[in-house]
Amino acid sequence: MAKQASNGENHSVAKPPPTPSPLRFSKFFQPNMRILVTGGAGFIGSHLVDKLMENEKNEVIVADNFFTGTKENLKKWIGHPRFELIRHDVTEPLLVEVDQIYHLACPASPIFYKYNPVKTIKTNVIGTLNMLGLAKRVGARILLTSTSEVYGDPLVHPQDESYWGNVNPIGVRSCYDEGKRVAETLMFDYHRQHGIEIRVARIFNTYGPRMNIDDGRVVSNFIAQAVRGEPLTVQAPGTQTRSFCYVSDMVDGLIRLMEGENTGPINIGNPGEFTMIELAETVKELINPDVEITMVENTPDDPRQRKPDITKAKELLGWEPKVKLRNGLPLMEDDFRLRLDKPRKN
Ligand SMILES: NC(=O)c1ccc[n+]([C@@H]2O[C@H](COP(=O)([O-])OP(=O)(O)OC[C@H]3O[C@@H](n4cnc5c(N)ncnc54)[C@H](O)[C@@H]3O)[C@@H](O)[C@H]2O)c1
Q1: What CATH number is given for 28-340 in this structure?
Q2: Whether 131 contacts 90, CB under 8 Å
Q3: Which GO terms describe its biological process (predicted)?
């Protein structure tokens, strides 16, 4: 259609649309949501980043000191215009303009968190203080990945969020368990005192690709042992139970919690309960029927039973896990075989 130009001339040929301004792709282009993920180079964090990056309106910044995480976990995003990776230790302050903070930074495996227990406490306490300070300064919503370890060796079963726990304050695991308990306290104090928007997830055992091989966690141990053809070492008595949540379910739960209206704490985990012997037998059956199962000594303060009550997550987040252990283990096997250079025998 002819258009009347401001100088009064008629233009009968429609003009093609203008090419977007180069500014659109420059630092002046504002995405809808800028998200900081601390600990984003780790196991759960990197899967969370993958999911967040699927949304083209998200810009994701990862801050990680690479203690247990690796750049390898994020390699597909390095160089992407909506992604930034910062080598940063959360025990030091950080100032970035963000709308949301997923605060995951903290080693999760006992081997790593016991390696330098004072550093683990600092990461949980000073690190969480720093991230809350950032949230306060820039008005961001912050989510903490707390843990089922806040229930310690529980005296109620299954554990719901109203249970206050049975935790040893001076044991070798206390740097992690008590560290996370203080982190939760800080979250709620900042919420009450400063009105910060908080979300607290209590994560139960999670498994999946990119877990550290040989990190001492039971699923990765068994799978690495089965893939290498070594005996599966069950810690005595073997009747202690755990529940295992596949990482894609966990990430879905964390995002729902962040996007929803509830502060938590909310348990996120899979209520399917297995004894360690049952888990070893399942790994043996699915991955390597030729390996033996042997019993070894247990570590101090190892909880006897762990199973989440996820009523709250179901009701408030509309969330429940979808991936069954028998379906998740083979996905992890593929990743471990690749990293251990042990292809399947046909
Ligand atoms: N995996 C589980 O089963 C599980 C269970 C309960 C809670 N959690 C929690 O979920 C979060 C992620 O666990 P994960 O399994 O991915 O562990 P992970 O060890 O794979 O990842 C932790 C990440 O935090 C980084 N990190 C550690 N200390 C840091 C510091 N001081 N500054 C900056 N970065 C630091 C590590 O380098 C790593 O990338 C942790 O907060 C953990 O406590 C995990």
Answers
A1: 3.40.50.720
A2: yes
A3: D-xylose metabolic process; UDP-D-xylose biosynthetic process
Residue 235, helix vs strand vs coil: strand
Cβ–Cβ under 8 Å, residues 145 and 102: yes
Using only C-alpha atoms, what is the Rg of the chain? 23
Domain ranges of the chain: 28-340
Taken as a whole, the chain contains a residue count of: 346
The ligand 1 atom at the shortest distance from the C-alpha of residue 245 is 3
Dist. CA 196–CA 235, nearest whole Å = 42
Which among 102, 113, 176, 246 is annotated as catalytic? 176
Q: Which residue has the tokens 């600990």?
A: 39
Task: State the distance from the centre of ligand 1 to the C-alpha of 5, rounded, in angstroms.
Answer: 61
pLDDT digits (tens, 9 = 90+) for 92-135: 999 999 999 999 999 999 899 999 999 999 999 999 999 999 99
The pLDDT, as a whole number, for residue 344 is 79
Are 317 and 201 in contact, with CB atoms under 8 Å apart? no
Element (DSSP H or E) covering residue 312: helix 311-312
